[in-house]
Amino acid sequence: MLAGELAWKRDGARLSIDVPSLTFTNADLSGNAFGSYVYDAEGPGKIDLSAVLSRADAKSLPHYLPLGAVMGDKTRDWLVKAILAGEATKVELRLKGDLRAFPFVDPVKGDFSVTARVRNGMLEYVPGWPRIDDIDAELSFQRNRMDIAGKSGTILGAAVHDVKVSIPDLRSRAPRVLASGQAHGASARFLQFLQASPLRASAGRFTEAMSASGDGKLRLELELPLTDLRATKVAGEYQLAGDEVTFARGLPPLTQAQGTVAFTESTLALRDVRARAFGGPVAIGGGTRRGTGAMEFSARGEAQPAELGPLLDDSLRRFLSGSAPYVVTVTLREGLQRVSVESQLRGVAAALPAPFAKAAADALPLRVDFVPSDAGARDRIVVWLGRLAAGDVRRERVGDTMQVQRAALSLSPPAHAVRLPEKGVLIYGSAAALDLDGWRRVFAGGGSGRSMLPVSVELKAARVDLLGKRLQNVAVRGSGEAAGWSAVVDADELAGQLSYSAEGAGRLMARLLHFSIPPVTPGSMASAPTPASELPALDVAADSFNLRGKDLGRLELVGVPDGADWRIDKLALSSDDATLEAKGRWRAGQATDFDFSLHATDAGKFLARVGYPDMVLGGKAELAGSLTWAAEPSRIDYPSLTGELKLTAEDGQFLEIDPGLGKLISLMNLQALPRRIALDFRDVFSKGFRFDRIDAVSAVDHGVMDIRRFRMRGPAAEVAMSGRVDVAQETQMLKVRVVPSLGGSASTAVAIVNPVAGVAAALAQQVLKNPLGQLFAHEFDVSGSWTDPKVAKIIVVPPPTEAATQ
Predict the structure, then answer these.
(1) CB-based contacts of 760, cutoff 8 Å, min separation 6
(2) What number of other Cβ atoms are within 10 A of residue 106's Cβ?
(3) Measured between alpha carbons, how far is 424 from 549 in angstroms, rounded to an integer?
């Protein structure tokens, strides 16, 4: 709708238009105007116009702006594209002067001004930057200048204020838009702002993986050359106010962060940023390097291992205490972050097994380098721990995670780089001590989530603690994977090849040149044996088996899991002197059953081999039995020992021994008898007793041996023994009957006195089986300990004769 008065007058080439009042209304705007216009055929004419609009819709701005020839094409184009929406009220226009001088930079030549109040405005000040919404502002065109003074608005939901947008020279050949403003809001919005603007290629590279909570303040200034927006200048600052900032997913956050993040179109700088991280204070600084475009930041702080979170495996973290200063350097180049961590670890105590135990006062230089490559598809983590160890890990991206492809750990590393395997993990080097029992406790229960890469081992150690035992001077070379492993081991205690198959319950095979039971680790706490059901199958052969310093010959052991039990199919020891064969069962880890037979071709040498030399000379012996005890096979529990034993021996001689050393053998020797009583047996027993045959049968019940039969026959005497022996307490309660073989010596003595009687006595000895020996037989009670037996002679009252009864 248009209403008003209009008068015009033409005088030759001169045209005059007079508008006393003109009211207009349409969908875009509504207002009133008055003024005059004169065209005198020279130039665009002269004008004197005033207008007031009660409303105007910014979307229709292109329809009402002056042509580009008047206000500049770049300027007009920017206004059309930048002002996307808005409701203008109180719009006032004043245009006066010779239009050839528009926009009247010289006030003497005329006047041009437009002012308006804008609400619900939407300004896209430059493509690619987050727009300003919900603008409440004052718009002003003054001569050749445009200004927007925003009282309020929002950017990405954050409140902005003091927004100023201006074009200092609308008709410049290189017009510029100057924009500035301040915002207060969530720090997360600021990070979103960086990623949603062209700054994502500069400052945004550093903040891409960051997240934040809390509020802060943003101050931003832009200079936009409309002829080349790529040359836009940016200057901004973001003030952190006690925020919580996380630099990457999975990392512990910075808390109570304060300081300034300053940025331009190509640089980023952290100024006086302070926070708390890893349980201690940290100061952060740095920014873009001049001339390179790379960014470098450093953080100096104090960290507690307990607060390192996912940066350190929980299995290790719980053994660390204290705190230590550290320096972290982060370099950002070509979109990739390189991180370096350094610390002397002074102040951190490590209660870890050898060789990584450390006192808090000791320094142990640590350096960790994280180096990405191939646009983040690969990375490398290198760790140096003084002269103690070095590690190198190579990872590749698989899906959303980085997975280890190759890794190496070097103990006592040389100065050159860590040697990596072609695939899997390599552990190599040397150490003074390795506490593998301790490391098993460290990682106990933590292996289920670890991937199984092929592992190779090349290690030397002066001392290794494993399974409660201590090995000396160990060298091992081996490899393994999920299906099993194999190794060549050379140590003081064993040497040979070992292999393990994980199929089924597992199977360990060992072929050894020599094997001895290692000593118990000093100071180690007694631990429960491995349950029978958890043992793998064993197939062990050792050419030389040494037990407590005694060479027992060749060892063969074959055992397999059998339900809840562990069945021993074969246990064999063989030497030049004897062979032992046994089989049995470890019943659910509660008791052990053994059936065995021992055959000694030279009993004396065999006893010397097992630690009892100079007790028996020569002799052949066989010992067989079935025994049960309530413990694992490697430890006989004498109080629970139960079963049966059978012994036969022949053609040997007991030697003079100390009863405390001979133990059970001293009971059969009987040399204690002449020491304890005044009998004439010294020639028979004291210097050793030669035997032709020994037969013995006994039963054992909870450590007490019941000697059911014991017969020993020799040239000098026949001995019978019965009673009980407490194997656990090493005591006895025995009855011993000794029948001297007087034989030829007795008949000779009689013959000297009476030759006829001598012949009769000799004949009686042979026919009646030593009747003279029976006549001189003696019986004894033997009690007390094995080391100090108590011997008492039993007085046998002979039966009365016929002469005495008459």
Answers:
(1) none
(2) 9
(3) 40
pLDDT (0 to 100) of residue 456 = 93
pLDDT of residue 770: 47
Query: Which H/E stretch holds residue 771?
Result: helix 771-775
Q: What is the pLDDT of residues 590-621, one digit of tens each?
A: 899 999 999 999 999 998 888 888 888 999 99
Strand, helix or coil for residue 419? coil
Q: Mean pLDDT, the chain, as a whole number? A: 83
CB 263 within 8 A of CB 288: no
- Residues 645 and 627: their CA atoms lie apart, in Å, by 8
List, for residues 434-457, the tens digit of each pLDDT value.
Answer: 988 888 888 776 554 455 789 999
Question: Pairing between strand 268-277 and 83-98?
Answer: unpaired
The highest-confidence range among 307-321, 622-636, 751-765, 782-796, by mean pLDDT, is 622-636
Structure token digits, residue 503 = 């199929």
* CB 195, CB 167: distance < 8 Å: no
Task: Kindly calculate the radius of gyration of the chain based on its CA atoms and give it in whole angstroms.
Answer: 52
Q: Give the Cα separation of 638 and 705 in Å (integer).
A: 11
- d(CA 715, CA 689) in angstroms, rounded, equals 9
CB 202 within 8 A of CB 267: yes
Q: Are 98 and 64 in contact (CB under 8 A)?
A: no
Cis peptide before 355 (omega within 30 of 0): yes
Angstrom CA distances, 606 to 581, 601, 610, 617, stand at 15, 8, 6, 10
Is the separation of the CB atoms in 130 and 196 below 8 Å? Answer: yes
* Rounded-to-integer distance, Cα 495 and Cα 513, Å: 6
In one letter, which amino acid is 715?
P
Q: What is the pLDDT at residue 445?
A: 60
> Which tokens hold the place of 58?
């910014």
Judged by average pLDDT, the poorest of 303-312, 551-560, 641-650 is: 303-312
Cα-Cα-Cα-Cα dihedral of 445, 450, 452, 455, to 10°? -80
Indicate the Cα dihedral angle 705, 709, 712, 713, nearest 10°: 180
Residue with tokens 């409140």: 159
Q: Could you tell me the pTM of the whole model? A: 0.71
> What would the two tokens of residue 549 be?
């310093």
- Give phi and psi for 442, each to the nearest 5: -60, -45
Identity of residue 260 = T
Q: Phi/psi class of residue 234: alpha, beta or left (left: φ > 0; alpha: ψ in -120 to 50)?
A: beta
The β-bridge partners of 693 are 650, 713
Mean pLDDT of the 625-643 span:
89
Q: Decide: helix, strand or coil at residue 554.
A: strand
Q: How far apart are CA 216 and CA 236, in angstroms?
A: 13
The pLDDT value given to residue 717: 82
